[in-house]
Amino acid sequence: MLDRRAFFIDGSWVAPADGQDFEVVNPATEEGVAIISLGGPGDVDRAVRAARDAFEMWSESSVEDRVALLTRARDIYLRRRDEVAEAMTMEMGAPRDLSRESQAPCGDALLEAAIEALENHVFERPSLRGGSTLRDEAAGVAGLITPWNWPVNQVMTKVASALAAGCTMVLKPSEYAPLSAGLVAEVLAEAGCPPGVFNLVHGDGFCTGAALSSHPEIDLLSFTGSTRAGTEVMKAAANGIRRVALELGGKSPNILFADTDLDTALRYSVENCFSNSGQSCDAPTRLLVEKSVYDEAVTMAGRFAAEVKVGDPLEPGEHIGPLVNKIQFERVQEHIRKGIEEGARVVTGGLGKPEGFERGYFVKPTLFADVTNDMHIARNEIFGPVLVMIPFDGEDEAVAIGNDTDYGLAAYIQTSDDAKAQRVARRLRAGNVYINGNYGDTDVPFGGYKQSGLGRENGPFGLEDFLETKAITG
Known about the structure:
Aldehyde dehydrogenase family protein, single chain, seven-stranded mixed beta sheet, oxidoreductase activity, acting on the aldehyde or oxo group of donors, NAD or NADP as acceptor, 21 strands, 2 domains, Aldehyde Dehydrogenase, Chain A, domain 2, Ald_DH_C, Ald_DH/histidinol_DH
């Protein structure tokens, strides 16, 4: 079992001041793979003080120096990317191919996007009328809190943007996915990140996360996780009037019009929803289908869902792995149970584990049909391989159902009519709209409306989240 109790503070790996042991469990085997420490307020305070001491130096560093650090980090990360992929498979159960082909490549892609944003940002410029100089400066010491579902993606989008802006930081990754974050710390150390600029403290949300969110020397907080936890972060930050950036949950509509190629659209819809075992905040979990093709679509989607394989994360191939832990497994089972109780039709899947998986937190890929948008399974983020199908009649009803949610992170449209796609995209209240399977690059802003969060991440928009603007006149 790996010993990962140390924290990275002020340029060195140090022993916890008041840590508590926590076992990291492989969700495919339910066996421990590492021991970390859950830090306490003393550990957070030590890390924040290191970041504060380093802030003046790093915030005044040149663009060239920051680009050089990010470039070295990208090159080292690329060399160690397979290690990062293996860590994510071990800690959160992402299948090997998904870790190598989708999860791990996010790290170098986001570093590259941050470099590009930094090189193209104009830090000083005249005001529109020319009477003042507008200057963008690092916002301060940043507290970064990241989740377990896309560990490196969420760590790197925050860390790379904060470094580019000239901020110093304290990162608290999820205690369920700490190993990949530790490798990121090693990459930055090897790249020559100055002491105190990047600090890593492991811990849970109730103690470590709360201590970081309420620390008086933190200037801004960037949090990714559930809407419930994001609300607590905002409350903790409010006492110090600290800036908060939040990337939270979603219940994204996927609007399938009758004029689309049903085979292609439905296969994409099922696979995208179930990818990463459904543990993606922007997953297209509400499949809205035009009534004229609804019955046919249910039959086809059921066939595609039944073909989705569940497998050992260590094995190659296209299959989904387990959920991250026992807590998440039980939550998803409860959501499925409520869907059945409400009268939704189980087309495939349902309660319990797939056949042949007595150990591990594996869930049957589950498809519900005949769902109405007021049902529990249509309103709540399930965060598992569960897809619900809802019929609609016409463009206006599709938009109305799509927008009838507390969330607004993403939306999806499937149609062969380009004008309709653009028209509907502009009416949907979501931060990202994907048409016919197309996705934005890492320079495109990612974030949501309503209870899906505040602010935007990635590229120039992520950089701006870590900047303050000063007007100098005279």
